[in-house]
Amino acid sequence: xxxxxxxxxxxxxxxxEKLVIVDFWATWCGPCRMLSPLxxxxxxxxxxxxxxxxxxxxxxxxxxxRYRIMSIPTLLFFKxxxxxxxxxxxxxxxxxxxxxxxxx
Length: 104
What we know:
5-stranded mixed beta sheet
C-alpha cells in the first residue's frame, strides 16, 4: 500500500533498496484519478521491487516546489535516494510498467 508523504517525513520515505515511485497528485485532478488505480495495481503486482509514495500537492507544497512540479500527475523515480527519472501525465498501465522496468 502506498505511503503518504508530508513535508516532514518525505526524505525518510526515499530511503529504500527498492525503486521508489513518488506520485504527485491532487483530489481535484482528473488525470490523477485515472492514474492512481493503475499505480495501485502495479504496486501490488511488483511489491517486491517498488515502493509507491503519494504526495498531495495541496498538502505538501514544499515537496512539490523542491522538485519543481508544474503539472500533475507527475511521477518521480528514485533509486538509492537519487532521482533517476520522471514522467508527467496519465498513461496506460503498459507504459507505466515499461517505465518502471526501465528504471529497476
